[in-house]
Amino acid sequence: MQKNMRTRTIALFAALSVLAVTGCGKKPAKAPKNAMTAADSAAAASKQPYAMKEGKRLYNHYCGVCHGESGDGAGQYYGLTPTPANFTDKAFMKSLSDEALYKAINEGSASVGKSNMCPPWGNSFNPEEIEFIVGYIKTLQGS
Ligand code: HEC
What we know:
Helix content is 52%, strand content 0%. It has a domain of 91 residues: Cytochrome c-like domain (Cytochrome Bc1 Complex, Chain D, domain 2, Orthogonal Bundle), CATH 1.10.760. By secondary structure, it is mostly helical. The structure holds heme C (HEC). Heme C binds next to helix 3 and helix 5.
């Protein structure tokens, strides 16, 4: 009985190793070019530093409705006058220092001589979080 079990176990291992070597003879399905899988984007996200991830999370949650998730100024609240700032506009972004962005977010757009359409966020976020958001919105203009 004992011997029989052992033989069977050995046979099973042999069968498994053949399977492992041949890989069931299946070729992996070819992914279309440039297709980003969920695993890829999760991997990309995990490589982002904490500040960037946090900035993105806060931005998408609190700012995207007006500024758009891509930052182009076309969020769900359309028809705002003036239109929400377009963070994908390189020239516009270049014209604003980090300090100016920080102030506009912290104290609202009225604090930087614009309309009062962008509320002050200083009571919602701590200074570090505002810095994360500044860092994140600066990436929206692309490289
Ligand atoms: C209710 C809609 C709304 C929400 C929500 C909103 N914004 Fe705005 N934001 C605006 C509008 C409208 C302007 C343009 C104001 C102007 O030009 O007078 C603006 C302008 C800005 C500006 C540019 C200020 C400048 O100097 O021109 C920054 C920076 C900004 N928003 C950041 C943010 C951030 C960060 C958040 C989220 C924490 C946010 N906004 C949420 C509507 C919004």
